[in-house]
């Protein structure tokens, strides 16, 4: 039987036109059948629709998370990973000790945490396993760095994990002391292999970890999320890049997948492997949407690839994948019609990628628009903005990141920090933006926080008082577009989601007030009244009045 719903509101956000209307959205089964600023046509009313009048509550297209690492985020949400902080090695270890009381630990129980980062410490020195041993002499401890690529381990953890190190990677990934002993810090592929071993869960266990997190996301108004590969671990079962379509499939089968997931496995799994995987997941809830690559690192560890040396240093950083190889990968993706999401933070990495994207599109004209994205783009050189426009690449950005780093950005890149995160400039150059969080690099950032950060360039506490480079602030309609239609374009699914448009899937969020009338500083406080995916309410805060009045 056909189901007809009408959602009425005095504030409906039209993402494509970047404007609000007062009126009604008509939903027939899973899809949007009409959006009206005046009266709803009689043909719908005659079919006894279910009418929800939201009054002043703003109706928006469902929010879309453009960049997250879902499984790791779910582990944090389920407190399988303890979040810690501290401005030194000892402070971090002590913080973990205070959060994980030793008397409640079982023998051999793993302690996994996240939240250390040398660039944020007063003393810029890699930590030692001995500091952790002091607090945790028996249980294995692994603390993930904020860059998600590095682990700090105690001796008990090293005893378990070191025998698993691939000898080819030992020198590169395992830090040793002057005496030649492992110091406790392990990076890159080996770190990822260790995480794979620590979180050695079955698909059913992974599903149980993901399910509550997915429900939580719907309570934030999210109807879609992009799940991007981490650096992959080489395991006996092949690469583990933490992209688990089979787990989502299991959840969908149990009717426990309340939002869409757009998956980006590591592109170097190979075109054939990606296409085979994509052919297995063809529903609009689970898609293999493209491939993920990392071109460089981050500025705060001098690993982002810059055009000129870092402030007070000789290094310019370097690419993780050599430029010639990256060019080949971009051409291969373009030729194969596979959208890429490439981590590029340094201005040189961004420049090289843009040149390659433009050249690849020119060479493979017949393949149509393959919608690629660059991720983060923190230090894009302003002279490269026209190049970015020409490339048609989307800027996938995280509005919380400038507010994490604004105090220290100039320490690494000097004057160049003044043009970092140039959101307004992207808009002026008609470069489409997609908002995300990069969870769990940051945690607990909601879509409403994202809107607030990008509109104010201030922290939740209101710092700095005038906003950081406030000329780069965006307007309400611009930020809403980046969190909806922009992010839909980033996941290559804008023909189906991202705006309230006839024929698109009915993915909708209802805010608890009229966002147009909300003071900017209160936007972060807006809650979600309801979240609809495929025409079904996946989340409802409170029942609304159903009336037959139109
Ligand atoms: Zn990321």
TrEMBL record:
This is Amidohydrolase 3. Residues 56-536 form the Amidohydrolase domain. It holds the Pfam family Amidohydro_3. GO terms for molecular function: hydrolase activity, acting on carbon-nitrogen (but not peptide) bonds. Keywords: Hydrolase.
